[in-house]
Amino acid sequence: MELSTAVWTGGVAVAAAVYWFVWVMGAAEVKGKSAVDLKMGTINRDNVKDKYTQYWSFFRRPKETATNTSSAEKVPAFVDTFYNLVTDIYEWGWGQSFHFSPSIPGHSNREETRIHEERVADLINARPGHRLLDVGCGVGGPMRAIAAHSGSQVVGITINEYQVTRARAHNKKAGLDSQCEVVCGNFLEMPFENDSFDGVYSIEATCHAPNLEDVYAEVFRVLKPGGLYLSYEWVTTALYQAENPEHVETIQGIERGDALPGLRAQKDIASIVKSVGFELVQEKDLALPPAGPWWTRLKMGRIAYWRNHLLVCVLTALRIAPKGVVEVHEMLYETARHLANGGETGIFTPMHMILCRKPVKASEEEN
Fold it and tell me: What pLDDT does 2 receive?
């Protein structure tokens, strides 16, 4: 009797542990994916590892990818592959807003994210009746926050079909599907008419473009004259030293692990904005004091990483998660290490803000 009781008690304890470990601790920080539902986008589960290998080979030397014409033309396809590989893991471990935010004392990560997103709506003067464009919208976390805050209609564009499906599902669940629309497309060749948006924004998205001028020019084309465009850019700062091997390793680690064909220098952003016709209204690195360190969240997540890594290994062994998920998860952890190092040393910022205006006279010149 005592043996059977012990066995029964042990079985209940194991079941409870599995439930807690997988379904409770394995759930996304902001309601979304759970650990048992990692699909790797539209990639067939048997091809995940091969796709990861192809991706890693392509972005092995990021700067060469950006400067080589034939390679640059392939960047959008590999960015699409990247987001097939990481979208579910991002949702599971980070939430529905795939970006960083300045740390604010007394606020949670979720509140900091909301404040960072609502700042966009306020700076581009978004309001009811406006039609906004979210360039590189991901699964739509910022889109929903900005739509709810401003009352504007928001159209998001992402190159990844799986993200379109996820964003639409989240929009409907949030009751914002009549206010938020998502389309699949390349932001270097957007399927929108000239002068068709009252405001445009991009949150840590244009860093995927081989040439920043190309995406800025597309934004300029679709924005109405007099309209405002805001972007949070990933850039190297003035502290970055190209002759410093540790600096180079950090920046290349960020580029390789985030599908970036070479980061731009902070000092060059303003001139690029002006080169396509924009008037620069404001430029500011939001990572600088009084903002707290944005990378703290990455360092605090290291315990969670090992928990999640063990969980991913178990799910892969049980064939619940596809082969290749472990490698993708390891890549993201290593990338997080480089990101945190870039923040601590001050050589990298993911929130260099530029706010610019399309001149009213631009419509006359285009016509």
Answer: 60
Residue 186 dihedral angles phi and psi, to the nearest 5°? -95, 125
Q: What is the pLDDT of residue 30?
A: 43
Nearest in space to 332 (alpha carbons), one of 107, 135, 83, 22? 83
CA distance 251 to 264: 11
- In whole angstroms, give the CA distance from residue 308 to residue 186: 32
For residue 60, what are the contacts with CB-CB under 8 A and spacing of at least 6?
Answer: 256
Which residue stretches of the chain have pLDDT < 50?
A: 1, 13-14, 16-17, 20-31
Three-point CA angle 260, 266, 268, nearest 5° = 95
Rounded Cα–Cα distance for residues 235 and 233 (Å): 6
* The pair of three-digit structure tokens given for residue 230, joined into one six-digit string: 């805001």
Alpha-carbon separation of residue 270 from 120, 145, 277 (angstroms): 18, 27, 11
The pLDDT score that the predictor gives to residue 334 is 93
Q: Are 152 and 122 in contact (CB under 8 A)?
A: no
User: Which of 99, 98, 150, 100 has the alpha carbon at shortest distance from 121?
Assistant: 150
pLDDT value at residue 23: 47
Q: How much is the pLDDT for 12?
A: 52
Scored b (16 or more CB within 10 A) or e, 189-228 reads ebebeebebbbbbbbbbbbbbbbbebbbbbbbbbbbeebb
